[in-house]
Every structure is written in C-alpha cells, then in structure tokens.
Fold Ketose-bisphosphate aldolase.
Amino acid sequence: MSVVPLNEILSDAFKERYGVPAINVFNDLTLEAVLAAAVEKSSPLIVQTSVKTVKSIGSDVLYTMWTSMTAGIEVPVTLHLDHCPERAVITECLRQGWNSVLFDASKLPVAENMRQTVEVVAEARGYGAQVEGEIESITGVEDGVGSDRAAEQQALDVTLEFLRTTGVDVFAPAIGNAHGSYKQAPELDFQRVSDIVEAYPMPIALHGGSGLSDEQFRDLISRGCAKVNISTALKEKFMKSSLEFLESAAEKQKWDPPSLFRSVREDVIGMTGSLMTLFGSAGRAR
C-alpha cells in the first residue's frame, strides 16, 4: 500500500468498474483531510495539484508536505499533476516525485499534441511515472487553464490513433462535461465512453465531476471512468464551511483559528468520504 503508481490504483478500478476520486487540493489542510478520508473509508485516492497550486506554494514545499503526510499511510494513494500545458512544470514535478501528470496540449493541433505527448510519456517513464492525455479541451476554466468555449469531439479513429501512438495510461475525453459549476444539467455522451473503451480498453478520466448526479456518476463509472476528478466541489466546501464558521464566530465574538481548521477539516473529510462511497472505492484499499 502507501504511495503507489497511478496505474496500480486504476487497473483494479477499471477492471472491477468502480471510480477513484481524484481530488484537487490547494493547501495543507485539504491535503491532510482527503488523506484522512481515504484512511477512514479504506479507499484508494488520487491527490491532484493544479499548475496554479504548484506555482503558488512551490513544488518543493508541496512535495515535502506530501511525503510527510503519506509516511506510513495504509491505503494506496498517488500524486497527480492536473491540466498542465507547460512542459517545464511537468519536468519540475516529475523530478520532484509526482507519480503522474496530465499533459494538456488540447489547444494544439492533434498531430502536434501527439508528437509532444510521445515526448512527455518517454520523459515520465524515466521517472517511473504515468501520463494522462487529452486531445479535446474540457469546457470551462479551472485554475486559469481552459476555455469556456464548447469542446469539439474528435472522431473515434483519431482518438484511437492518439492512444496507440502516445501510449498514455489514462485518457480524458470530452463528453459534454465541463469544469466549474454547471449552469444547467449537462447532456452527456455516455456512449462515447463505451465506444472508446470497447475499441481500446483503458481507464477513462472523467473531468468536470463536480455537479453531476449520482446516476450520471454510476453510469459513467460502469462504462470505464475509473478516475473521477473533483475540484470545484472541494473549493466550494472549503469556502462555504469557512464562511459559516466565521459568521458564527463573528456573532459570538470568539476567534479561535484551530477551531476553524477543525471544523473545515471535518466537512472536507465528510464530503470526500461520501464521494468514495458513491464511486464505489470505499473498502477497496488492498
């Protein structure tokens, strides 16, 4: 157990059709809380960091936090760099010890995306790390990366050529999903996940998970979405939990930061644990 490669976590999830939460953390509290939830629920966990978080905290500090908090942990966990279009940041994180990266070259023409992804996969293999790939932008902006323009889907034969040529370990398709909060119920292309998996069996990453219904999660996971990304939901939980506590503190005129941290931590653990139960990863640590 403990810190393991991404593919070790996803191989069982894909084979047995459950989803593993891939949660974007942004400080020490959220990192410690999602790890605590994984231990509490006996669930594997993918911890993600955005480029914005890497740059604001520093890869060295982040990785020191990671190694300290995962020392002796009894469930399988892995550290993943989310949506990163910057090759220099990918290299920096791989050198530090990140277990996997998402090279986001979705704004490039497919041929150039494919060429560079081949290079990233080769680089990652040198560190014993894995790579998530994508050839279509996921609608929405997350931590400064992305676009609000609706994503266009590539033909299945283009997708398969990308997968076979690059050798990525996980693929993130556009299926009508979006980053951020959905303004209306999304119309998802469930069949596209099934078509890709049938033609090229490999774990699929579901982006834009915050705000999907329980039924949508279960359906997509059953089709092969083994990695389920959660970012906005954690940010909202962190901020709203903090706001609620601070409003109460203002009324009582009691100012105790450790009490704030404990309260927010409990809420983050509760949210993360409920996702593990919903996705079917609870009790799967082994």
